Amino acid sequence: MPHGREVFKGDAAELGRLHQSRWQWLEEAVGPAVALPTEYPDGYHVPLHRHSRSQLLHALVGVVLVTTKHGRWMVPPDHAMWIPAGIEHSVEMLGDVSMRSVYVMPNAIAGLPEGLRVVGITELMHSLIVESEKLPQGAELEGRGGLIMGLLLHEIPNLPERPLGLPFPSDPKLAALCRRFVAEPSPHATIDEWADAAGMSRRTFTRAFHRQTGLSLSTWRQQACLFAALPRLADGEPITRVALDLGYDSVPAFITMFKRMLGASPRGYMRGARDAGEGVRRLSGPARPENAMV
C-alpha cells in the first residue's frame, strides 16, 4: 500500500512498470477517496492514461499541463484539475512539481463536477489535502480519518471554477487555427481574420466556435495568452517582458486582462500561489522518496 510522498526517478521502462503497478493498486483500493502525494522533475511527461476513479489533480508547487482530446488545461500552484473517471489524459510538468492527487469513486457523493475543469483550492481544501495524505490509503476509514475524507469530498463541489481551460474545437480547420495561435499567441488576432482563414462568414464562424468550445473567440484568446504567460511568470520573468512578448501594446493592458480573467494582478496572483504552496509544504514536512503515479 502506498505511503509517504513519492518521487519519480528512473529510466522509461522502470517508470512504465511503476505506473502499471500503482494504477493496478489504485483500481483495487477501497473507500470513496484515496489521496496520493507525488514529486516530479521539470519536463516529466505522463503519457495518455485513464482511471476508473475521478481525479482531483492539485499542484502545490510548479505548473502542470493536462491534455485530453477535449483540449488543454493549465494547473498552476493553488489550483487543481478535476478529471472525471474514464477520461484519457496526459500530464506535463512545467518546472519541478509537488503534486497532490485525490482519486474519487464515481458518485461518491452527490454534486461532484461532471466535466473537466480547473478549480481554485481554498485554505480549507489545502488543509484537508495535507491531512488526507497522512491517513492510511486504500481502506475504509472511520473516526477522524473518515471525517477528514468525508469533508474533503463535500468540499469538491464548492471549489470555484477558474478560466484556465483551453478547449479545442472539433472542426479540423478551427482546431488548426487554435494550435497556431497557441504556438504564437497575440491579442491582436481578429474574428474576421480567423473566419477568412477557416473559409467561413463571420457569423458562421462565431457560432461554430462558440458551439464547439463553449467560449467566444475573445475569451478563448485571453485564456491562451494566460497559458503562455503563467509558466513564465512562475519562473520569475518580469511582467513587462512577458506582456510585450505576447504582443500587448502596454503592460497595463496585459495586467487588465490578467485581473479580469483571474481576479488579481500578475504579481499578486503569483505571490499568493507561492505563499500557499510554501505554507502547505511546511505543514507537509520533508519528502520521502518512493514510487509515483498521476
Q: What is the straight-line distance between the termini?
A: 16 Å
Q: Tally of extended strands?
A: 10
The assigned structural class equals alpha+beta
Major sheet characteristics? 10 strands, mixed
Radius of gyration: 20 Å
**Poorly predicted ranges (pLDDT <50, ≥5 residues)?**
276-293
The DSSP helix count reads: 10
H/E topology pattern: EHEEEEEEEHHEEHHHHHHH
Q: Indicate the proportion of strand residues.
A: 15-25%
Give the integer mean of the pLDDT values. Answer: 82
Silhouette: globular
Percent of residues in helices: 40-55%
Q: What is the element layout, followed by pairings?
A:
Blueprint: E1 6-7, H1 12-28, E2 33-40, E3 45-49, E4 54-68, E5 71-75, E6 79-83, E7 89-104, E8 117-120, H2 123-132, H3 143-155, E9 161-162, E10 165-167, H4 172-183, H5 191-198, H6 202-213, H7 217-234, H8 239-245, H9 251-262, H10 266-284
Parallel strand pairs: 1-2
Antiparallel strand pairs: 2-7, 3-7, 4-5, 4-6, 4-7, 5-10, 6-8, 8-9
Please name the defining characteristics of this protein.
alpha+beta; 294 residues; 44% helix; Homeodomain-like_sf; DNA-binding
